[in-house]
Design brief:
The structure holds two protein chains of two kinds. By secondary structure, chain A is mainly α. Chain A contains five helices and no strands. Chain A has a single domain, classed as Up-down Bundle (3 helical TM bundles of succinate and fumarate reductases), CATH 1.20.1300. The longest helix of chain A has about 30 residues. Chain A is elongated, with a radius of gyration of 21 Å. Chain A starts with 9 loop residues before the first helix and ends with a helix. Chain B is an all-alpha fold. Helix content of chain B is about 80%, strand content about 0%. In chain B, helix 2 packs antiparallel against helix 3, helix 2 packs across helix 4 and helix 4 runs antiparallel to helix 5. The longest helix of chain B is centred in the first third of the chain and has 32 residues. The chains are: A mainly alpha, B mainly alpha. At the A-B interface, helix 2, helix 3, helix 4 and helix 5 of A face helix 2, helix 3, helix 4 and helix 5 of B.
């Protein structure tokens, strides 16, 4: 029996690699967050339409009420993860230079974390006051 | 491997055909639109964040957001965001259906793709009508 030309098995090469060096886990997470995003996006549209033209005091009261705040938090967190994966996919498709790729992947993470954190902070502040 | 590094090797290497060789098709267009709407929503999230922070900050900050959303540019951005959200959502549903290996026949996939486009435009208009009705007319 001849020795294999490479010591690395196909499984070894597949596992944990790919352009993102992280395998297919994110593909599945993109599907999960997309399914969750359907009811949450519909809820967001309904909430925003319901708040149109209302006074600031009314908007604060409604956005800070438990049910609305929880739905908004879920929307923000779910969307943040979904769009983080999506933008990473776009970057990996179009940015081939390693230095630029690394920087844009990092910028993607910074942007998403900042947006998600700021939104969650605002929702929590509306909920708990002051 | 050094002998393969000559520039002539790269020039003569056959390339597989890319996008520009194909006649534009609806499914192809909607595929790129799905990505474009996704990227637009990515940055459009800033709008939502701004709105939430302003609501939490106080009446003055909230009035600024309301003023901006009332301008023509603000309305256009908001209208675009509404359509992008719905189109990306319906396109996502289409992709989830395709993930199950259903709806991939030539006619089926064309119908599904057309349905997402017509659906997103119709729903966007309906939501804006509902929005204006909720506010008691355009302003």
């Amino acid at each position: 029996m001849n020795a294999p030309p490479h010591m690395r098995t196909p499984m070894r090469r597949v596992r944990g690699l790919g352009a993102a060096h992280s395998g297919t886990g994110l593909f599945w997470h993109q599907r999960i967050t997309s399914v969750a995003g359907i009811p949450l996006s519909i809820a967001l549209v309904v909430i925003v339409v319901a708040l149109l033209g209302r006074s600031h005091a009314a908007v604060v009261q409604i956005l800070g009420s438990p049910l609305i705040a929880i739905v908004m938090l879920l929307f923000v967190i779910n969307s943040a993860y979904h769009m983080w994966i999506g933008m990473q996919e776009i970057i990996l498709d179009y940015v081939h230079d390693d230095k630029w790729k690394l920087m844009s992947l990092m910028a993607n993470t910074f942007f998403v974390v900042a947006v998600a954190f700021a939104s969650c902070y605002a929702i929590l502040k509306l909920s708990f006051g002051v | 491997m050094a002998e393969l590094d000559a520039g002539s090797t790269q020039r003569t290497r056959p390339l597989s055909p890319h996008l520009q060789i194909y006649r534009p098709m609806l499914t192809m267009m909607m595929s790129i639109v799905h990505r474009i709407t996704g990227a637009a929503l990515y940055f459009g999230t800033l709008l939502l964040t701004w709105w939430l922070i302003a609501a939490a900050a106080g009446p003055n900050a909230y009035a600024n957001v309301e003023w901006f959303m009332g301008t023509l540019i603000g309305k256009l951005i908001l209208f675009g965001y509404t359509w992008a959200l719905l189109h990306h959502m319906l396109g996502g549903v289409r992709h989830l259906i395709w993930d199950t290996l259903h709806g991939l026949e030539p006619t089926e996939r064309e119908i599904l793709t057309l349905a997402t486009l017509i659906g997103s435009i119709t729903l966007t208009l309906l939501i804006w009508v509902a929005g204006y009705l909720a506010m008691g007319g355009p302003r």
